[in-house]
Write a structure and sequence with these properties.
about 400 residues, alpha/beta, Rossmann fold, 6-stranded mixed sheet, 4-stranded mixed sheet, 11 helices, elongated
Length: about 400
């Protein structure tokens, strides 16, 4: 049965205010997000949840039963879903998305941090240990190793955590319970990331490792809108990055109807290889910018990306799930043609090859089998990129 959505009463607001103060005391770096999320009552929900527009759904009965200490810890949990963009990251997973697995993966990553910080979460929360996984992991990694159907022990956390949008959720511009638009959400996340960084620098309390990792990635966000760029370069396979699936008759479906052949579900995916310039001319700022763009490509395609470090010679391609796993091997001369050739030789051939370089390199004379995107950290090299390739300038810093 769907919960009943309404405004909080004065007594409910006071109870929530007490829980929010506990949450702020436990995680002061999340204060801005905790006070930005817009609370509404959700009678019958039996828990707390969040939606994509930063509404916080609170079951008044559960709020009372938990009390301010436990409710405050759960508020931190729900806000972590929002600031770590679990809804947006779900759209970048290899489709179709298994929302149950994603909810378990994100809950495990968050709760691992919060329990280590001493927050009194309910006993039934999902943890990496309960799922038989190592602590300190990343959400996408947990999702990849989870079994297809984890045991059902916890209610989902809402569309703000990557669950499907529910028909009882109000629209963005609902006059009674307006939500945050994309611009407001982006500004809020950046503010929280700066607060996390400042808390780490000033030594105020213990910032969980996962939150610190998120803030570092958020403040080192890529400059290129990779989902749009890859979709534009490979229109035919862009459905995955938008989280959509289609039907195809090339493989019959499992559903059997008399004298009817049903289609199966198909999830196209964009595959990409990344060539990182590791020559001696690449400064630390150039390499930091390159790694930020690798993170953007990873989020855009979901899963893993094959990365090749290249100076005048190409290293072996590595399957990478996180930009921190990229090995920057090199330091000699510069010839990205070698890296591009190595990317073209991969099996299967990538749809797109992304080259991250300062631009001081020769380029191939003709296009290969994959589309080429040249991302340059220095503008003077833009004129050298061949006309058949896509050239993008991303300044360092």
């Amino acid at each position: 049965m769907n919960p009943t959505i309404r405004a909080l009463t004065d007594d409910e607001r006071r109870a929530l205010a007490a829980a929010r103060l506990v949450a702020v005391e436990s995680a002061p770096y999340l204060a801005h997000a905790l006070f930005t999320a817009r609370p509404v009552a959700a009678e019958g929900l039996a828990t707390f949840a969040v939606d994509r527009h930063w509404r916080l759904y609170v079951d008044p009965v559960t709020l009372t039963e938990w009390g301010p200490v436990v409710a405050g810890a759960v508020l931190v949990h729900e806000v972590c879903h929002l600031v770590r963009d679990h809804a947006g990251r779900a759209e970048s997973l290899p489709g179709p998305v298994d929302h149950t697995r994603w909810n378990y993966a994100t809950d495990a990553a968050i709760n691992d941090d919060l329990l280590a910080a001493g927050l009194p979460l309910p006993e039934w929360v999902v943890t990496p240990a309960a799922l038989g996984m190592d602590e300190g992991g990343v959400e996408e990694v947990y999702y990849g190793v989870l079994t297809p159907e984890p045991p059902q022990t916890e209610v989902g956390c809402g569309s703000g955590a990557g669950d499907p949008v529910q028909d009882w959720e109000p629209g963005l511009d609902d006059p009674q319970t307006p939500g945050l638009d994309d611009g407001q959400v982006t500004i809020t996340r950046r503010k929280v990331a700066h607060d996390v960084r400042d808390a780490i620098a000033q030594g105020r309390g213990t910032v969980p490792a996962g939150m610190a990792r998120w803030a570092s990635d958020e403040l080192r966000a890529p400059s290129v809108p990779w989902r749009k760029v890859l979709a534009g370069m490979v229109r035919r396979t862009a459905a995955l990055t938008a989280g959509r699936i289609t039907y195809t008759y090339t493989r019959p479906g499992r559903r059997r109807l008399p004298q009817i052949v049903t289609p199966a579900m198909r999830a196209p995916r964009v595959t990409a290889a990344v060539v990182v310039d590791t020559s001696g001319s690449m400064t630390k700022a150039d390499l930091d910018t390159a790694l930020a763009e690798v993170s953007g490509v990873l989020k855009a395609v979901g899963g893993t990306v094959r990365v090749i470090a290249c100076d005048a010679a190409a290293a072996s391609a590595r399957h990478v799930r996180n930009a921190r796993d990229v090995q920057l091997i090199g330091g000699g001369g510069t010839d990205m043609r070698v890296g591009i050739t190595a990317a073209e030789a991969l099996k299967p051939t990538p749809d797109v090859t992304v080259v991250l370089t300062d631009g001081d390199t020769p380029w191939p004379d003709s296009p290969g089998r994959s589309r080429l995107i040249a991302v340059l950290t220095r503008e003077h090299g833009m004129s050298r990129v061949p006309a058949w390739a896509r050239a993008i300038h991303v300044p360092t810093g």
